[in-house]
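Q: Is it fine to ask for two folds in a single conversation?
A: Yes, each is treated on its own. Send the first.
Q: Here.
A: Result:
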Amino acid sequence: TETVYGLGGDAISDHAVATIFEAKGRPSFNPLIIHFANPQAAWAHVIANPVAKKLAEAFWPGPLTMVLPRHEGSAISLLASAGLDTLAIRVPAHETAHELLVKADRPIAAPSANRSGGISPTLASHVSVSLGQRVDAIIDGGPCHIGIESTVVAFTNDGTNDRAVLLRPGGITRADLEAVIGPMESALGKNEPTAPRSPGMLERHYAPDTPVRLNAKSACAGEVLLGFGPGALSGASENSLNLSENGDVREAAANLFAMLRQLDCPDTCCIAVMPIPETGLGIAINDRLRRAATPESP
């Protein structure tokens, strides 16, 4: 899709959804995002409030996922929603994804196309390396132009209105959302290790095999540097990379997962990451980096 490559299966088929979990090695309590060809198809499966419809009008098709109560009559597999009474829904903007959804004529459940907890793929070759023969086919749609997952918004009903809550930062910033619906709450930093409401809320996620050290000014012996901004790699090892020489957070987001993959190798003791501004897409980048840097549970 326009965000990252997705591992898709028929969202109505319990068997297909089970094979998605199997291929990824994904914890069964982590829900999947359900993709639709258009908003009308999505509304048939959830109970949408006026705020959600306003966001859909502004940002669909596009990198926005909304978590809403599912209709009682929805045929979406309960396994896809991890047993929750909500569904995470999205209408992607990528032409290839849209064409697939139209031709399939059914909702497609699709997490990122990588082993669970690992680095999300932004090229078809990343999918091949990560999943190999675990998938039946790979559709090469070229590089993902956003390169970071969708923004996830849920809703809290306080009895008088439905208030939007930002669960995961992504391709659409909080400022973009608030320009349409006004001030919103945020659940950022509130990890949900046992029963997350949306994908990407596990404490450790998006992680390379090589340990990640954040807020580095330079790389120590045995480390490679993932830099940001002009002159960031001055004095760094030749294997180091710069997310954006111009200090552009959009370029950094597009490069993030691909560069983490490049730096993830057995000969490296650690990936040292320079600070990224906590503004705009930088918020989403830092969210992914903090989760990638979280040590694996013993």
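Q: Second one now.
A: Result:
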Amino acid sequence: MGTTSDMSDAATMPADAIGATDRASWLARIDEIGEEAGYFQPLGAAHWAFFSDDGPNLLVTFETMDAIRARVSDQLPMGHGIAAARGWSHLCIICDGPTWFRDPAVYRFFDRQVDDAFMEDFDRVVFYGAGMAGYAACSYSVTAPGATVVAVAPRATLDPAVTGWDTRDHAQRRLNFTDRYGYAPDMVDGAGDVFLVLDPHVVPDAMHAALFRKPYVRQLRVPHLGEATEAALLHMGLLPKVLDAACDGTLNRKSFARMWRDRRNFGPYLKQLLAQTDAAEKPHRSAMICRNVAERMNAPRFRRRLAEIEGAAKVAPESS
């Protein structure tokens, strides 16, 4: 009877209640891991700090609860896996929803790190985030003078008085971006190197990046990756390499250019590149791309497209 009752309760439990249970279980699990590794503590109602004390270098990441829980492998922060594999310490600020990490509780947390000289205990500190989290990585890097910042497609602010031209994330403009830790381009004051990784063809991302005008800010351009830049970099295995280089002080435009060559073997990038040249009606360039890919890889789609282009070229003179 007990088993039947348990099954009935689960079957009739509302979907949001099931989700809440899963969320509670996840929080309990990561709390247990944090207690063993360092700490896990709530920051207000929608943020948490997860710290793993594991080495003399510190990786600080900003991540969302949804993205972490969607990681099938371990449901731990992406930065945790990268840091643990390299013997780094890791601090992750986790948000629940599109908070943009704009919360006085988060401000106070970083204030305490400054008061305790926490960041000074590490040989090297790297802040990382993408999009909303890239904004946060830039904004809170001010608490660690000399830190390296790697931000993928970061926003400068959502303050409509400054970036009203960006029509994305419209609902989040009501958040306060004019108080403490507010304007990201100013908050990178005192940083060591700041690297902005972005697809320059995503115009709003390029416009946000242009607002970061400090002489130590460098743009690392990854054209044709689109708005899912971080996912593509992870898929290519490029992001851990970038953070490796940032942590050992060797990241620069030249070293990144060598890493970026991996795109030549990344199917989604190649398909996007071909789609753009086809849309621009540049058959000679499309043929060059298809020929290069077909000669190096098992790529039937590119071979078929090359045959179509060459076939069209043969009949064109007859139809003219």
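Q: Anything structural to flag on that second result?
A: Two points. Residues 1-19 have pLDDT under 50 and may be disordered. Residues 15-37 form the longest helix (23 residues).
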